Amino acid sequence: MEDTTKKVGAFDKFEDLLNRYLGPIAEKMDKQPHLSAVKKAMVAMTPLLLIGSFCLIPSAIPNMIGESNPLSVWIVDNTSYFDLAYTVSMGLMSVFVAVVAAYHLAKSYDLDIPGSLCMALVAFLLLGMEMDEAGGISLSALGSKGLFVAMIASLVAVELYRWCKKRNFTIKMPDSVPDFISSSFEIIPVTIIVIGVFLAIRIVCQGVFGVMPNQIFTNLLAPLIGSMDNPLSVTFYHTLRCFIFFFGIHPSVLSPIVMPIATQFLAENIEAVQAGGVATHIFTPGPMSAFGGFTGLGVTMGVVIWYMFSKSKVQREIGKIAFIPSLFGVNEPILFGAPIVLNPIMFIPFVLFGGILSSIPFWFMSWGWLDCSTFTPPYVGVFLEGFLTNMDWRSIVANIVQLVAALIVYYPFCKVAEKRALEEEARIESERSAFSAEDEAILDDLGLDF
Question: At what angle do helices 79-87 and 46-56 cross, to 10 degrees?
């Protein structure tokens, strides 16, 4: 009994600490119009993320069960349909985020919604749209890689619209003109300014720096990543990935910097083994996916499992939906559905501990407890992928250690989130109950007998 009381008391103190310091930050973030708009846009992406995540799973099945069986043959023959569903959902996520974020920001400013959405979309496409060699539109920057540019472009476009309107830099039409026509003419000067500003930014980025605007962020981070072939550097790298993902910026923006290094180390490992030696490099592509992305960056399966057993109905549903994608290393459903992104309560476990959780097997490799990788396996599910990187059964043990550590790390924060979710559900239920009670009282006063 005494031990239980101490545990409960310690947890209460921890919860009070989070509420005292992170609660006000969360409240301010919710009220800050720009952060609120971005957060709402990310949450609105949950259905698209779920569809896109499930569309990635079939491609892994032939790798797991072979390509000669009827199911695998059917999947391979119909891959284009799965790819299409992915493309129009997660593949265009930046476009949707730009539009939804602009909607919420414009709504908070009481601006014309259709005009704001058009300005935001034009601004983002001017910065993020690329043309392929055939002259068509390349979709590479319109998916998760373009999220940062999409958020900035949409918010700035709406702010330019607001600036123009406050200074009456618009075209005024007579009152007799219908509102939808008046609104269209009103934003003509705004359109000129938005196109001019964002086109100038693109010209400067391509003309002066020689890169697209979305690559500027990648280039700024390049000097921060030096030699990656030690566990400290790997932990820093994963922590950096968690940090930028927490703010909605997909960590794939770092891939052009680190993948050439990882591929070179993999080649040296293979050469060493072929020469009769031992692989020594820990930073290779296979482990980056199998260990660094185990159930998703930050080992977010810890959140998924606790949500599946939560007392909150909403959290249980989110956990159940996110479980299968997490088995294939896809954690966007839990990141944006929980949410973890832009959620101050989850900053500590996901950012400060997420990098450590993702790096545990790399420390094992550096200590000689786990063989280094000589193979980059195809996209398969958890545990099997880690084993295939080095054919070492201890890889499965390393994944289990990651999962147990994630359950421990995320537990107190999930309990705080659960308590808040239950309070919100109780509030909504009480409002419904109060309304129903009021209706019953009215019916009783009327003396109606049904």
Answer: 160
Q: Give me the percent of the chain exceeding a pLDDT of 90.
A: 17
The DSSP 8-state label assigned to residue 131 in this structure reads: E
Q: Under a CB-based contact definition with an 8 Å cutoff, are residues 302 and 406 in contact?
A: yes
Strand, helix or coil for residue 138: strand
List of residues 6+ apart from 198 with CB closer than 8 A: 122, 123, 126, 127, 153, 157
**For residue 163, what are the contacts with CB-CB under 8 A and spacing of at least 6?**
169
Q: How many helices (H) and strands (E) does the chain have?
A: 22, 2
Say whether pTM exceeds 0.85. no
pLDDT single digits (tens) 355-373: 999 999 999 999 989 988 8
Q: Are strands 130-131 and 137-138 parallel, antiparallel or unpaired?
A: antiparallel
Spatial neighbors of 366 by CB under 8 A, at least 6 apart, are 230, 231, 282
Helix 147-166 to helix 33-44 angle, to the nearest 10 degrees? 130
DSSP run (H or E) holding 130 = strand 130-131
H or E, element range at 339: none
Cβ(340)–Cβ(350) below 8 Å: yes
Q: Give the per-residue pLDDT at 175.
A: 62
Angle at 254 between CA 259 and CA 346, to 5 degrees: 125
Counting Cα atoms < 13 Å in the Cβ hemisphere of 22 gives: 17
Distance (Å, rounded) from C-alpha 63 to C-alpha 58?
10
Mean confidence (pLDDT) of the chain: 80
Q: How far apart are CA 119 and CA 114, in angstroms?
A: 9
Rg of the chain over CA atoms, in angstroms? Answer: 25
b/e 294-303 (16+ beta carbons within 10 angstroms → b): bbbbbbbbbb
Summarised one tens digit per residue, pLDDT across range 379-421 is: 778 888 888 888 888 999 999 999 999 999 999 888 888 888 8
| Separation between Cα atoms, residue 61 and residue 244, nearest integer Å | 31
